[in-house]
Design brief:
alpha/beta; CBS-domain; about 15% strand; elongated
Length: about 375
């Protein structure tokens, strides 16, 4: 994510902070500024402690995902909370349930020592003294952290995407039905809850609740779209979708030849072959970037990318999409065993999705890709 920077690497996971995160720290300082400089520092410190709880919540998700064999790209802290970015989605309902439940469970564990240390008498005396906010103290900090963790658990257990509760609902449904059906039901429940929250927010004048309702409504819609994409792409093998007629290059071709192909065919990506062996890939972006400082007579091997994601032709388009996401690349080389067949890109996969979705193939398919038929066999 742009405008974020890494502050730590824990358990192999980059912990990043978005630059806007400091606005919430400033807000915490302002809330207690009536108590002087010490109060402002107290407010900022409480916010940082709260986001320590948020960070632990996200690490709960991340560590369970890693234990289940799902890599985690990063955790990002934002003013509105945290986000653990998994490299790929869980492939089973039970796995999604375990990952989703881990976050709120961490907050429940945090609540145990907080409640044991909390002295409500001091808080009550402070409020009875006419203070809207309790005076800065260890007990008031404990109270705010306790309240915040309770709200984190309660809010995240709402059965609505993209909250943990929505993912838990889908996970349970997924155990008894298809992924597509579970996603549709969970998304519909989430959007109905969002509409109910919005109506209540409008009648009560609660702007914050209205923003939360919008967040939930559109988040559920995005999850529906992602679920549909996964379902449709899982019905086709990449061996049926790669470009069989793409032009290829030799490592000793000049870059001017690539420019000629780009202008005449609009082909954006080229495989560089040595005989029948794939040596690398050259993209249109590579060529344009090089021509800013280099000449057109340079050999292709100078600018080619030797590291290419390799997938088998029997892999589904969704599996290829997730493999590319994991490698943070946009092009994969398709193989039939050891034999190179061609290239497929994220753009190709998106185009295949648009066509398949339009034709409604997912309705006539059992949801599992059929056997791949190698060309010429």
């Amino acid at each position: 994510m742009k405008w974020s920077f890494t502050i730590a690497r824990i358990f192999g996971i980059d912990l990043k902070v978005h630059i806007t995160f400091f606005l919430i720290v400033l807000w915490g300082a302002v809330q207690f500024s009536a108590f002087g400089t010490g109060g402002a520092m107290f407010g900022a410190g409480v916010v940082l402690l709260l986001f320590t709880c948020v960070t632990l919540h996200e690490f709960g998700h991340a560590l369970v995902a890693q234990a289940l064999g799902i890599p985690v790209r990063q955790i990002i802290l934002l003013p509105i909370g945290g986000l653990a970015q998994l490299v790929r989605n869980p492939s089973r309902g039970l796995h999604e349930l375990l990952i989703a439940a881990a976050g709120p469970l961490v907050n429940v564990i945090i609540l145990i020592p907080l409640i044991l240390l909390l002295d409500l008498r001091e808080l009550v005396q402070s409020i009875e003294g006419g203070r809207f906010l309790p005076a800065p103290s260890v007990q008031s900090a404990l109270w705010m952290l306790t309240y915040s963790n309770v709200m984190l658990v309660a809010f995240n257990l709402i059965p609505a995407f993209p909250l943990d509760g929505g993912r838990m609902l889908r996970a349970v449904l997924w155990m008894f039905t298809s992924f597509a059906a579970a996603t549709r039901v969970a998304s519909a429940v989430g959007q109905l809850l969002a509409i109910a929250m919005a109506i209540f927010a409008l009648t009560s004048g609660n702007l914050v609740l209205l923003l939360i309702a919008a967040f939930v409504f559109f988040g559920a819609g995005a999850e529906t779209a992602e679920g549909r994409t996964r379902t449709v792409l899982a019905t086709r093998r990449v061996g049926d979708a790669y470009n069989r007629h793409a032009m290829t290059l030799s490592p000793y071709d000049p870059i001017s030849r690539v420019v000629h192909h780009i202008l005449n065919s609009y082909q954006p990506d080229f495989a560089v072959l040595g005989g029948r062996e794939l040596l690398g890939v050259v993209t249109r972006e590579d060529v344009l970037r090089y021509l800013e400082s280099g000449g057109p007579d340079t050999w292709v091997q100078v600018i080619m990318r030797p590291d290419v994601v390799r997938v088998q032709a029997h892999s589904t388009l969704d599996e290829v999409r997730q493999a590319l996401s994991e490698a943070e690349q946009r092009i994969a080389a398709v193989y039939d065993g050891p034999v190179y067949l061609g290239l497929v890109s994220l753009d190709d996969i998106h185009e295949a999705f648009v066509i398949l979705d339009y034709l409604g193939r997912e309705q006539s398919s059992p949801g599992i890709a059929g056997p791949y038929a190698p060309p010429g066999r």
